[in-house]
Structures are given as structure tokens and as C-alpha cells.
Amino acid sequence: MVITDRRWYLASKGDVHGALKEAVEVTLGCERPRLSEAARLLTLFREKRGTFGSMGLNLPLTVSRLARNQLRSLVKTAQSRILAIKPVPFFCSEGGDLDLRTRLEMLNEATAGLFVATRFDDDFAPLMVLHGALLGTGHVKVYAHQGKVAVERVYPWEVFVDQLDGLYGQPRTLYQVRWLDRPVLREMLDTPKAREAIRLAPTDRAEWAGWVQGLGEPVRVIEAWHLADSEGKGGRHVIALDNATLRDEEYVYDEFPVVTYRWSDAEDGFWPDGLGHELYGKQLEINRISDAIAETVRRCAWPRVFVEHRSEVSAAQLDNTIGSIVRYRGVMPQTVAAQGLTAEARQHLADLVQSCNDDTGISAYASSSTKPAGLQSGRALRIYADQQDGRLRDPGEKWTAARVAVGRAMVRAMREIAAENPRAEVLFTDPKGKAIRRIVWADVDVPDERLDMICQPVSSLPQTPAAKAALLDELYNGGAITLEEYRDGLDLPDVKALTDPAKAPRRAIEKSLDVICKEKRYVSPEPFFPLEMARTLGAQRYCQAYVDEADDLVLELLRRWVQDCSDLIASMAAPQGAPQEAPPPEMAPPEMPVEGAAPAEMPI
To answer: In the sheet where 148-154 sits, what is the strand order?
Structure first.
């Protein structure tokens, strides 16, 4: 028994391609069952009988379509439901000042611009989710290329993980194996050393990778990553052919550039199951029953004419003419329509289809794009949609995590670009303003220790017009938005656009207080500020500065701010220059009568 040391990342630079080749050969041998299973699932999903020939199993691929492909229907439904979530990754911080929050807003805008500039949602997200729903995992690769962030499609049968390394679901080494035509590879790596290595590379027509059989000169390219440790050391990135190393560099990150969307949690190892694995057996049974029903209908369900052999009937008279006259002598011909199919077969097929819906948690209404009778209001439709998406909540959360990982990969790639070109910028078309936006990355980037990337939905409003109007009605009737905001929301389904103006006063006050605390320069409160809020925020900032033992000058300036706010409030209540009423004259105390004196006369 030959034992191969698969720790290629410990090999020297001159020998790394040989060590990497041996490690990949062992890994590919262990991954063959997964590839065969993926081939069978792709066959059923593509609605074709036979085996997916392009996966290299050398079996005929016919063009006969499936009569009822419940697998495809449910997978496409799940794909559309997951893609409808559209979470947007964004950075946040804890305890950040206004300056940090302002930079984070610009950084979040630049990160969202990277998704727009790379056309991730249009060109890559649909296939990534489709592969995840069908095969269990979907992949994309994000990297820096020629001064831009590039996103590349990666198929599940190109990605490999060592079984022992991925036993607990968190491998530290990842392989991408693909075949490129020799001229194409030469154009991609146009250096003297690479050209010579590509010229001498052997032509590889792998038996198991049948999709490369049509290439003129297929050359196998192996790209491998080994993650760095917690201190950013020990990582390695290698691109190699079978005969040479094209690139060998340090890899300082703790995440792979190949981002994986996982449909579920694997029971063991790295590769989870998708809907295809759950529905494979039932789809085969549906195919068998559908074929039997079709053959039974073809053979038995058509009417037949019975003619007694001694009757004198002309066969030419037995046609499909309406109201035709058939002349006979002897026994009359009889038309009999035999029962083509039993009720049990139809019920068995219906039960199989319903079982597929039950297993996946996707209703027949959702998979057929219809709504149940009686649901009319937007609120009822949203509640029903929430119930339908209950089983898809875990895949939806994993899709949110995958988009966060894609966002982090884009930020890493952009930082690599900015390290070489400090004026590197993110250029994208603003989907709201329909204008070209340019953001210099160095002006908005923030160190990782002050960042935490999370995801949120792009908008809390529904997408359909009826549901959107219903939710706006609820917000308006509940007093959460004004009539003007309600009118704006009918045309602009974005809560951020409705709430940003309401947050402007607080931000203006915090901007002035930041100048006081950071620059130790006094900025008086504006009369048009909400003065009660300004006084409250100033007092809060004073207490925080006192707890933090800030400079005495800062404390004095904050006390002055609070006092000025109070004076402005008082002056607003009693404006200067207003006429004041004269105080009432003081009344002399009444004289007490002297004992024995005559009472004073009352005036007439």
C-alpha cells in the first residue's frame, strides 16, 4: 500500500507542483462517487433520459424529455424563493463616532457598488443558488484581476476537498481542478516562463472529465489554497500544471476566494445534500409510473371496432366520418372503448407528487405559481408566503451567510488592488440615481478590527404592488409614517429613503458635538436644531466624557453647549424685545380702626 503525504503546502518551491499533483490524484479518487451522483442528478434536472454524457460516464445521452419533472419544478421554485431574499452585506461598528459611521456609510455604498459593478446578482447568483439547491453546494470565485474585482463561475465538479481535511466541515485546503485549451491558457499567462511550461505540459484527456473531450489540446490546471493560521502565517496559494509551477505565493487570509453556498448542513464531511438528493428516488418512480401510464394509454385507451368474422361489413366504411352509414349483414359491428388506466395508478402518481412537495416543504401552489382560492388581501398573502417559506428558512439564512462571504472576498480583493494603486476606485452605476458613481477606496476603507460585516434585506417592503400597498396602509394607519411618506412609498419602495430625513437632525447635532470632543473647539448650537434633543444629547455626551475622564476643556465646552441650548429654549419661549406688562401697583395695607373712634364715612 502506497501512502501519499498530501501536505503539498510544506513542499519546497521547486517540488510543489509534483506534491500537489499527487495530493490531487488521491483526492480525485475519493471524490468519484460524488461526481457520479452529480451526473445523475443533472440528468434528471435537465429533463433528459439516460446519463449526463458530458460528465464523462460514456453512456448515451438521448434527447427524450421527461413527461413530468417534479424535481426540476421544485428546484426552480426553491431557487426563485431564495433569490427573492436579496440580502445586502454591510459593515457596522460598536461605539463608533459620527466620523466612523460616515466612513462606514461610504464603505457600505462602495461594497454594494462592487456587487453592481461585477453583475453578481444577474450573472452569478442564479447559478450559484441553483447548484446549491440541486447538488448541495454552489460556488463562485472572487479575486483581483487587472485592477478590478473579478467574479468567476465555478462548478461543483471543479472543487475538491480532502476527505480527512474536510471531515468536520471546515477544511483548511481547497482544490480547483479545471481544463483549459493550450492557446487559451497561453494568453492568460503571458510570461516567458509560463509560455515554456505551457508548451511542455502534457495533453490531459481525463476519462472521468468527459466534458473536455472536445477541446483541441486540454491542459489540466490545478489551483490550491491552504489557509493561514490565526497570526496570518503558514498559508499558501499555488497554481500548477502537471509539469511546472505557474504561481507560488503566500496566502495570508483565513477564508478561501472560492465562496461556497451550502443548501444544508452535511451529516458528516464537507459536502451536504441538496433537493436533488432528496427527490432522486421519487423522480425515478415518477418517471416509471408516467411511462407506464403513457404506454397503457397508447395501447388500451383508444376505441376499437369489433366485427364478427361472418358479418358482411366493408372495412372501408369504418372511418371517423360524422354521421356515416355503415351497411352490414349479420351481426352489427360494435365500438368498444376499453378502460385505459386504473384509478390506483393515477392515485399512486398523485401521491408521489404530493410526497415530493411534503418532503421539500414547497406547496403545489408555489411550484405551479398559483395562489390558493380565497386569499385576496396583501396581509393574507404575506402570511401565506411566510408559512410557505418556513422550510426554506435555513437555506435562506445560509444564502445570507454566503453573500456576506462574497462581500468579504470583494473587500479583500479591493484592498489588494488599492495596495498597488492607492487611487483605485469603485466605479458603478447607482441603481437609484441612474448616475455613474466613483468612490476612491482609500478614502472609505476602515481597518478590520473596527468592522463587523452582517447582512440585511434590501428593503422591508414587499415586492409585489398589491402587497406593498397593503403594508404601506398598515404603516400609515398605525402612525409609523406620515401621509407624505405614504405617498412617496407608493413610488419608491425603500424604507431607507423614507427614514433618512428623520435621522438628519440627530446627525447634525452629533456632528457638532464630535467637533467639541475631538477638536476641542466650540461650536454653538443652531437655533433651528431641535433644541430639546440637542440639550439631551449634549448632557449625555457630557456624562460619557466625565466617565471617560476626558480633558477639563472638553467638559467645560460641553457644559457651555448644554447651557446655550437651555438659553435658546428659554429665549424661544419668551422672545427678546417683546413688550412686557407693567407690574401691578403695590397696595397699601388697610388702616386698622382705632378703638373708640367713629367709623369712617363711605364715599357717596
So the answer is: 148-154, 137-145, 258-262
354: Cβ contacts below 8 Å, ≥ 6 apart: 364
CA distance 372 to 93: 44
Nearest to 520 by CA among 557, 565, 545: 557
Cell 358479418 -> residue: 311
**Nearest 10 degrees: Cα torsion 224, 227, 232, 234:** -70
Buried b / exposed e over 295-313, threshold 16 CB at 10 Å, is: eeeeeeeeeeeebeeeeeb
What 3-state DSSP class applies to 558?
A: helix
**pLDDT tens readout for residues 513-554:** 888 888 888 989 988 888 898 999 899 989 988 888 888 898
Task: Give residue for cell 394509454.
Answer: 297
Is the separation of the CB atoms in 245 and 94 below 8 Å? no
Residue found under cell 410557505? 388
Taking the model in full, what pTM does it have? 0.72
pLDDT, tens only, 211-249: 777 778 888 999 999 999 888 888 999 999 988 899 899
- What does the alpha-carbon distance between residue 418 and residue 438 come to, in Å, rounded to a whole number? 14
In the 8-state DSSP scheme, what is residue 525?
A: P
Please write the tens of the pLDDT for every residue from 432-483: 556 788 888 888 888 776 666 665 554 444 555 555 566 667 777 877 667 7
Cell of 596: 373708640
